[in-house]
Design brief:
Mean pLDDT: 97
Shape: globular
Strand order of the largest sheet: 2-9-5-4-3
Radius of gyration: 20 Å
Low-confidence stretches: none
Amino acid sequence: MPELPEVETIVRDLARLLPGAEIQGVEVVHADLVQGEEPAGFAAGLRGARVREVTRRAKNILLHLDRGLLVVNLGMTGRLLVRSPGDDAPTHLGVRLRLADGRELDYHDVRRFGCLQRYTADEWERRDEALGVEPLSDAFTAEWLLGAAKKSRVAVKTWLMDQRRVVGVGNIYASEALFRARVDPRRPASSLKKKEAARLVEATREVLREAIDFRGTTFLDYRDASGERGEFAGRLRVYDRAGEPCRTCGRPLERIVQGGRSTFFCARCQR
DNA sequence: AACGCGCCCTGTCCGC
DNA sequence: TGCGGACAGGGCGCGT
């Protein structure tokens, strides 16, 4: 999916476009995308609601309504698009919210790994508590990382992607952050020294910030709220570059599989 | 309790 | 050209 930078890009767009808009009609095309209740209840709960603000938590898009929240997770291939009359009709439409001003907020998702769910403020608070630290917040420090990883023998790359610990870092940015930090992705999380933890924290923040500046990475499917691609793909240093030369040392980059996901790294630069 | 794996689903690409 | 297998920004639930 969209990882933190892609979700943040969408959220910033929606925060500009949606506040004040009223949801007039709800069309659930794929019922399996709606979590927590039946489509009829979901539609009834949203009809007539007004969007107050749009924020991000982890890889979730939060639409704060005048009654409760609508939380959207894009999974691997989800898109949340603001469409005006006359815009191209979407393929793989999953859920359509018709706004009172004539626009539509359309959720599409080829693989349908994403989901939409309504929450009350209290329900969301409990869900929120189960999510880990925001990597762009002040709470994400080398000291915190050392303490949190102390007892974890899992590979640091897998550790970094676990949303109960650190949120927002997915398969692309985990490889990128570890490369920038010069840390071997196979190392047990508990084996990191203080300096390495500090480098990893800084590298993670840096790559996420840069990717936000470039409006995210379009690898295959990602699009922003207007349907545009992100521009960070060309800046990736290791992801999807197996066999190509390391931009630092020239050695061919490796691809391995960790937890069923591809990891890309330089066996010389990352120790 | 922590960890690894399989699964959800569709589309694309590659090798035979 | 056709077909099977691998793979694709995620996350959950299961077993051990």
